Amino acid sequence: MMRLVLRVSCLTLLLLGVAAPASAQIVHSVTIGGGLFWPRGESSRVTGDVLVANLNQPVVPGYEPRTTSLEFEINDFRSFPVFGEYNLTFNDRVEVSFGVAYSQRTVDSVYRDFVNGERGGAEIEQELSLRMIPFTAVVKFLPFGDASSFQPYVGAGFTAVNFRYSETGEFVDPSDLAVFADEYIATGTAVGGLILGGIRMPIGGDVYAFQVEGRYQFVSGNTGGAANQFLGDKIDMSGGMLNFGFIIRF
C-alpha cells in the first residue's frame, strides 16, 4: 500500500508540473488546526514492531505460564496532534500543500504477570512515550465548487516523521527476574506515504473556510532493536487522522 501511495504521489506531482502553466491563477492560503490520531491495530502492524513485542513476550522458563509482557493497549497511543499547512491552489482545482504537525502520547504500563516482591508486591511500572513531528508534502484535487462554495477533495503525498520513542521506569530481567530501573530511547526520521480526503465549507465568502479532513499515513521507524535494548527493531507510526482546520486565503 505504501509503495502504491508513493507511486501515485510521484505521478501526481509530474502531472501537476505538466498541467499547471505559469499563467495559472494561484491562490495562497494557510491552514491551522488540530485533530485525533489513532494508531494501526495490533494485528496489522509492521513485523518487528516494538509495541507488539512488549505485549507478546514468551513464557519465562520455570515460571509457566507467566511472561514478561507489559499491560497496555495499542489504542492507548491515540493522540491529539496540532498542525499547520501552507497551500498553493491552481485554478481552484489542484492544490499543493506543505505542512508540519506535532503530537505526543505517554502511556502508563505495568508487567502483566510479575510484581516487585522486595516492595511488598508493588506493581513494576513503566512509561512508554511516542512523540511524532511529521513534515508533509501533498497534492490535493478539488473536482467541484470553488473557494466560495462547498469543496470536496482527495489527495496523496509524502510524510517524513521525526520521532522519539522511549521506555522509562522499572524492568524485569528475564534471566533472573531481578527488577531494575532504566530508560531506553530511540530517535530518528522515517519517510512514508499518505492518502487523504475531506471537505471545505466557506465562512462568509471566499477568504475564510472550515475544513474537515481524514488522513491515513503509512510509515515506520527504526528503534535499533537489541542494540538499544528494545524488544522490537521497528516502531509502527501508521494510522488514521481526523483533522479540523481553519483556512485563511490571501
What does this structure look like?
The protein has a single domain (2-18, 26-249), classed as Porin (Beta Barrel), CATH 2.40.160.20. 10% of the residues lie in helices and 57% in strands. The protein contains 2 helices and 11 strands. An 8-stranded antiparallel beta barrel has the order 1-3-4-5-6-7-8-11. β3 (82-90) and β4 (94-116) form a beta hairpin. 32% of the residues are buried.
Task: List the main descriptive attributes of the protein structure presented here.
57% strand; 2 helices; eight-stranded antiparallel β-barrel; single chain; two-stranded antiparallel ribbon; 250 residues; 11 strands; Porin
Task: Give me a quick take on this structure.
The protein has helices at 2-19, 50-55; strands at residues 26-39, 70-71, 82-90, 94-116, 122-141, 151-172, 179-202, 208-218, 220-222, 234-236, 239-249.
- From the spread of the alpha carbons, the general shape counts as elongated
Query: Low-confidence parts lasting 5 or more residues at pLDDT below 50?
Result: none
Strand order of the largest sheet: 1-3-4-5-6-7-8-11
What share of the residues does DSSP label as strand, in percent?
A: over 45%
User: What's the order of the H and E elements?
Assistant: HEHEEEEEEEEEE
Q: Specify the biggest β-sheet.
A: 8 strands, antiparallel, barrel
Distance between the termini: 36 Å
Total strands: the figure is: 11
| Helical content (DSSP H or I, runs of 4+) | under 10%
CATH architecture: Beta Barrel
If you compute it from the alpha carbons, what radius of gyration comes out, rounded to the nearest whole angstrom? Answer: 22 Å
Q: What does the average pLDDT come to? A: 92
